[in-house]
Design brief:
DUF7730, DUF7730 domain-containing protein, 2 domains, AN11006-like, alpha/beta
């Protein structure tokens, strides 16, 4: 039988010649491809062996710590010793709420840098997993939150959602939305919207009004202001117009006396120091009368 002639010499060993093997029929391209795959496989196995021996898993089992110790870590990371001022900023055509700096100065109120450490550097802790988020979120919202006006309060409540709103504990307002000036109608509408969104905030134990409330104008319908009302009575009517749904919810869920223990009238709420004590009782009495008719 006549041997098949090859167009090129074929070698399957470095020491082998074409005459020695007589043409074994092995394609050199296939041999090189197999050798390349084998070398790549050996390299991958070597890397896996080195990684398993030299660099073990360094993750810390945080959730295996006792609950008391985890809570202490959350307090160190997310608890602030000073009130947190929340301002608004337009970013990418959206108005967002971010942390600012506030210094309790006499009127006019001004914003100053603060040397105290805020919990912004540790907020990434809430994005670790669902379990840590559920444990750490109440610690974050237990801080005292100050808002420059009801507009910032409304935007903040709209962004955090109902679950986070239920964890709020302490809120302070520094300005009230009035109808005068540029954008006054929008600011005045924010009063009603902000307090309506506080419905469902079961842990909220303190709402301080450290601001002046506009008491101009009358009320529509049956609740028209009467001439016998004092300045305190008109303040009650103005506040009731904005927070009537929230006041009614507190009376139904926590009792009729819960509003007086939750709502705090700050220094800037009154025209003079003499009205602070004398007008407080009248203020809450008018609110109760308006909420009961």
């Amino acid at each position: 039988m006549k041997k098949r002639s090859l167009s090129h010499p074929v070698f399957h060993r470095p020491s082998c010649t074409g005459d020695m093997c007589g043409g074994c029929g092995i394609d050199p391209a296939i041999t090189a491809q197999r050798a390349k795959k084998k070398a790549k496989k050996l390299q991958t196995q070597s890397k896996q062996a080195n990684s398993s021996t030299s660099s073990p898993d360094q993750s810390f089992p945080f959730l295996l710590l006792p609950a008391e110790l985890r809570l202490e870590i959350y307090n160190l990371c997310l608890k602030s010793s000073t009130p947190l001022l929340l301002n608004t900023k337009v970013r990418a055509q959206r108005r967002i709420v971010r942390l600012g700096y506030y210094y309790a100065n006499e009127w006019p109120r001004q914003i100053h840098p603060s040397a105290n450490t805020a919990p912004t550097d540790f907020l990434a802790l809430l994005r670790t997993c669902h379990a840590i988020h559920a444990e750490a979120t109440p610690v974050l919202y237990a801080n005292s939150l100050h808002f420059p006006s009801t507009t910032e309060l409304y935007l903040f409540l709209a962004q955090i959602g109902p679950r986070a709103r239920a964890r709020l504990t302490n809120i302070t307002l520094r300005a009230w939305g009035h109808s005068g000036g540029y954008g006054g109608s929008t600011q005045k509408l924010a009063n009603h919207a902000a307090f309506s969104m506080l419905i469902g905030a079961e842990r909220l134990t303190r709402v301080e009004l450290d601001c002046f409330i506009d008491c101009k104008g009358g009320m529509d319908g049956k609740a028209k202001p009467q001439r016998t009302l004092t300045y305190d009575g008109f303040l009650s009517q103005s506040f009731w117009r904005a927070a009537e749904y929230w006041i009614d919810w507190i009376a139904r869920e926590k009792g009729s006396n819960a509003l007086a223990s939750t709502l705090v009238l700050g220094k800037m709420f009154w025209r003079s120091q003499k009205e602070t004590e004398s007008g407080k009782e009248k203020f809450f009495q008018v609110l109760c009368d308006l909420n009961s008719f």
